[in-house]
Every structure is written in C-alpha cells, then in structure tokens.
Amino acid sequence: MKGGASLKKIIVDGKAITSMDELHNTLHLQFGFPDYYGRNLDALWDMLTGGIELPVTIEWQSYATSSERLGEEGQRLLELLREAEQELEGGLTVIVHE
C-alpha cells in the first residue's frame, strides 16, 4: 500500500459460516473482489497474492465452529491462508480464534 493508507481488516465470523459458498461470498464482499472471482481455492490464492492491496489482516473468529461445518475444505482454506501469509511476508496476517 502506498502513502499513509491504513491496514485493512477482514473479519470472518465462523458462527455465521455454514458452507464454502458462504465463506467465499463473505471474502468476496469484504475484499471487494471483482465479479469474475471464481469462488474456489485457486481463485482465492490468485486474489490474495496479486489482486488485493496490502497490508491486510484476516481475522477468523469462531474457527472451530466453522471448521466443524466445513470439514476438510475449511482446513484446506486455512492452509491456503497460512501459505499466502508466508508468501506475502508481512503483507497478509491471518489471526485465528478457536
């Protein structure tokens, strides 16, 4: 981010997430992704690593609740977020609250 722009914070309320579609819709809306966002993990990776302004923090509240509902897909999404966090070296911060 240029100049004195402030840090953007994205909140994911795990209690409100009941499906991967809902989770992708939440991220789409909060990040302001373009309409062509594919709502899948590959598309999310592309957006996080090249389609958003940095720095940004993603705070996933009540992860355990959403993880129960999302199963393996939710775990894969969290892994993708952690990988993007490493790739972007301080540009993306992921905070998970159980």
Automatic annotation (TrEMBL):
Please report the organism this UniProt entry assigns to the protein.
Aneurinibacillus aneurinilyticus ATCC 12856
Similarity comment: family membership: Belongs to the barstar family.
Tell me the Pfam families matching this sequence: Barstar
Query: What is the name attached to this protein's record?
Result: Putative barstar
Which part of the chain is the Barstar (barnase inhibitor) domain?
A: 10-89
Q: Which InterPro entries match?
A: Barstar, Barstar-like_sf
Q: Which SUPFAM superfamilies match?
A: Barstar-related
